[in-house]
Fold this protein.
Amino acid sequence: MTSQPNPAGKPAPPKANPALKLALEMGPLALFFVTNAKFGIFPATGVLMAGVVIALAASWMLTKRLPVMPVVTAVAVLVFGALTFWFNDEIFIKVKPTIVNSLFGAILLGALWLGKPLLPVVLDSVLQLTDRGWRILTLRWGVFFFILAAINEIVWRNWPTDFWVTFKVFGIMPLTVIFALAQVPLILRHEIKPPEGDGPD
């Protein structure tokens, strides 16, 4: 599948490079961790809420587009962060990862069951895979999101808040990166490569 020229003759919106995307995702979490260590979970929650908004604004200014997953995550942070302050109860920000990951897993697996994999939308169409490849990859990511939700429940229910914050920042991201790297062989097996010579002039 080859890209089509812009009908209006305009260049496609630029995409943030992977390092920048990682920085925009990890920046709010890093601030969350540092603020919690110095001031506690409630100030840290406020910083996280501000951080995700700033990260989305920066992503929009740089690429003129908003990726699906960061938008959903940011909305969840704002909603559950507001509930944390409204009820003066940190449980709301703690269950946010459980609910968001369960939501992602349910949407991916539900759409897969209906025969309409949504992972190409989630990944911003950066991959071109066979139908079988998308089905397998979607199934794996859907199950993985539910595993992350279960891990979050186990951690926040059995360990102190500071440990949960540390695990959220330094545990979930490495697990996700390791899982994503483990999918590379599958992606390479099912990748649809452009025809020879189909490249820039």
